[in-house]
Amino acid sequence: MTEPTEPSTSSSLARDPSTVIHPRREPFEHGLLPIPRLIFSDPAQTLIPLKQKLLQLSSNQRVDSVAISDSLQISIEHARLVLDTLASILHSDSEPLTTAKFGEIDSVGVDVHDLVLFLYIQSYKRLLPRTHKDSAAIADVWPSTSAFDGYLSALSPLQLVRSNSRRFMPSQADEEAHQLSYLQKHLANIMSLLAEPVEGEGEESLVLTMDRFEHLGFLFQFGDKGLEGNSFSQCSPFFANSDPDMPAVPVPAAQVHDWLLQNIVATLEYISERTSSKENGPSSASDQDVAMTDASTVSVKVSTSNRGASFIEGISKSSYTKNASDIKGSSVKVLNCHESAIYILAPVRYATVYGCSDATIVLGAVGKAVRVEHCERVHVIVAAKRICIANCRECIFFLGVNQQPLMLGDNHKLQVAPYNTFYSQLEEHMNEVGIVPTVNRWDEPLALGMVDPHDSLSHPAGGSDVQAECATQVDPDQFTSFVIPSWLGGDSTGSAEGNPFTLPDAYKASQHKNHKNLGEIRQLIREASLEESRKRELSSALHVYFKDWLYDSAMRQLALMMVQERDVGVWDRSDPQIYFTP
Description:
13-stranded mixed β-sheet, three-stranded antiparallel β-sheet, cytoskeleton, CAP/MinC_C, CAP_C_sf
């Protein structure tokens, strides 16, 4: 094998997108669990002997939930949660745990080295957003004593978008720099978890084999688009030219450490330079509020990042749609949207909904993980492998999920219900990302800690032992199907009968009763012998009562938007059933 080439200098490296190192966001955004026994005050000292113990228990370097439960002294339920979480955030599509079918995750198990890296980053603390520039002045407007205070700086979600305080929340660049700084600080310890001594030379001479080096891809990626089918080792100067038919020569761990460190420093410098130039430049048009307008005119708040994520941000009092052809990356983020209807009718790997209020958000098919955080009075409809809900208030979740919904943090008055909609490509999108329609665990929410040890807020002593408030189930009599308009790909018949998830009997019976009652009312109206003037009066009265009902409906946001569009001539005024199907 040839000698590895010297890494590039900082200046050239930082401006060549294909060689810029990035932290993988997935472990930090979707992989942190508030389980106290997974968090160690000195992770390196604890995890090195734990790794040795786990390797001794396994013949193939993989462990199942029983071994994880025994070694970490956690419940078998939490051990399975660890496996499920790892399956959703591992970097390699060829990793057996990633490709395992539903029900096979435990038997496949996780590689011990991936597990110890996962356990190590449980010590990570999320970046605390900067406080509002005039938080004292608005304290009387939105007084609060909940966990929302540390994140929203005494602002309600609606005030956030109107006061243009988005810039005071962590930007993508700030979060990336924070994650890289964490990895920079802990790089030596991380390397010690993967390195092994040369036989006969003791602990002082540590090396990394190509196989161990690959595990660094769990935390790092090169370039804007990640591996794209290449192994992490092929992105390095150490193993890029290795003969696939010959075992690669191990590399000194110190050399790999120095190379990674140089790349991290170069990227941090680049992020700092770009942030400074943006702060000194003119404000973006996307920082302005969006007036109430037709969906076709809303475009200023939507962008696609060069890191493979599509952002929908700041939509207010409107509707917005993204189809599969509009999604350019593997994830989507819906941020600070208010009084709106958002449709993401596409297959993605990851989805995040953050800081939204009084909105209806439909997420098509999410193959890895969904996170909903700091939302108020939001209704989320999603088909996904897993969902995590943190610090939300008065939200309703209509779920088709293969794993238990996770409830974290300071939640209040949350409700869950079975999945309730359909669009023409839904089943195709679910198949593409591997969601199993025959399994829906919407009614098995799992509440973890009310206090998130991964945030940077101060918490009272003993708070970590308090369990988060769990969600209640929507009463079957209050359950309704959600109709996606036909021009967005919904069912042209105005129903959600194509729902791929089977409704529980109680909800199915309630839906059948509602349909029957509605049919009887419509028949009575048709058979009534009324003059034309009386028919118009009846129609007007029905519309008045219908509009009043919308304000109290569990799905009021989209329905209200439909009424607004009806008033400009889009909708047929003759039939209230066109708006909503019970």
